[in-house]
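ok new one. same drill as before - structure tokens go in, u give me an amino acid for every spot. 376 of them this time. try not to just spam alanines like last time pls lmao
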């Protein structure tokens, strides 16, 4: 950003809008190949490209519409749909607000209301592709006029609007929280003398830390890898969503398991990319230490794979709650495929788009095929 572009609040908002739009377009171009591969896998039974798109879009809103036909599940359906959109906004937050902008914002007479409206506009723009897919899915489902949905059409539409509003609200709240934490950090810099005064006992305790804790785990919430730490929690929460859906909405076991496999691959891939970036400088500075670089790499990889374990642990519980009869050997093969695919993605040395698309296509086909056969 240039100083001339930040001379007024509206100029700042316009510059921020252009920067975020360009960053989101670049991200969309980079991920286009993965989106196409995922659509081809999930919509493999469709006869045309448009039918594949509408099929995927319909599955995005189907759980919400099913919950709308069951009054007791409506609040849970709205919360799950809104949380899913909110998690997408949180994942995109580095493209919507940069900590380096904090000084420029504090220097401008920006009213809190305008700042809040600007954050909401950025989140809505970031979620626009997802909201468009949800709209296509809603139109597709309503156009087919299923008997179970006809009496609840208005309730389903209202639930979708509420979920969209919740997604935008969650994303906006996260940006506001980031900005407030940045302000607290800036204020703390003026009183940094107190932070620098450590007692001999504190120094001794720091000196007795083992290197995995000091160089891998502590940076997740007190060092340069805080985004990775946040992604660790968000990834864990996201991978528990299919288990909740599996327990609440029966009859779609294969689709919930296929969704889990896809989310697990996306979560591990994104978390690994963020961890590689944030730990790069810290681990490069550790080269003079008697620590093998491969050990640091394995510890970093364990962070990317960590959300997978709680998610997999909740699936058998959800299957038992929903009283789904399963094939144990197929379920075991599905679990191995999920773990193996995520481990392969994290350990792969080829990071270019073509190699990743080939890996994703292979592992998603295997995982979706196994997921469809888990239920007896």
């Amino acid at each position: 950003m240039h100083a001339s572009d930040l001379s007024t609040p509206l100029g700042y908002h316009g510059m921020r809008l252009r920067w975020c739009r360009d960053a989101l377009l670049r991200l969309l171009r980079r991920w286009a190949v993965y989106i196409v591969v995922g659509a081809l896998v999930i919509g493999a039974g469709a006869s045309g490209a448009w039918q594949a798109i509408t099929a995927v879009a319909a599955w995005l809103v189907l759980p919400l519409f099913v919950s709308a036909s069951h009054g007791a599940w409506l609040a849970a359906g709205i919360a799950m749909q809104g949380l899913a959109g909110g998690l997408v906004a949180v994942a995109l937050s580095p493209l919507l607000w940069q900590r380096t902008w904090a000084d420029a914002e504090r220097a401008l007479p920006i009213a809190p209301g305008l700042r809040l409206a600007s954050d909401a506009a950025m989140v809505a723009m970031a979620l626009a592709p997802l909201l468009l897919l949800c709209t296509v899915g809603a139109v597709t489902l309503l156009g087919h006029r299923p008997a179970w949905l006809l009496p609840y059409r208005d309730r389903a539409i209202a639930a979708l609007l509420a979920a969209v509003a919740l997604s935008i609200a969650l994303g906006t709240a996260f940006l506001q929280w980031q900005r407030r934490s940045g302000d607290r950090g800036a204020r703390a810099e003026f009183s940094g003398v107190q932070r620098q005064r450590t007692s001999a006992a504190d120094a001794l305790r720091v000196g007795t830390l083992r290197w995995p804790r000091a160089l891998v785990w502590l940076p997740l919430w007190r060092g340069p890898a805080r985004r990775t730490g946040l992604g660790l929690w968000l990834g864990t929460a996201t991978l528990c969503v299919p288990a909740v859906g599996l327990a609440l909405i029966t009859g779609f076991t294969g689709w919930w398991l296929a969704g889990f496999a896809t989310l697990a691959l996306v979560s591990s891939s994104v978390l690994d990319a963020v961890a590689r970036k944030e730990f790069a400088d810290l681990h490069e500075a550790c080269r003079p230490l008697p620590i093998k670089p491969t050990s640091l790499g394995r510890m970093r990889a364990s962070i990317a794979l960590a959300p997978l374990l709680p998610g997999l642990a909740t699936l058998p519980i959800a299957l038992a709650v929903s009283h789904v009869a399963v094939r144990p050997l197929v379920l075991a093969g599905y679990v191995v495929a999920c773990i193996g695919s995520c481990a392969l993605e994290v350990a792969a040395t080829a990071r270019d788009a073509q190699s990743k698309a080939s890996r994703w296509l292979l592992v998603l086909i295997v995982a979706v095929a196994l997921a469809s056969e888990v239920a007896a």
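The chain has two domains: 1-185, 222-376. and btw Confidence is low (pLDDT under 50) at residues 1-6, 188-208.
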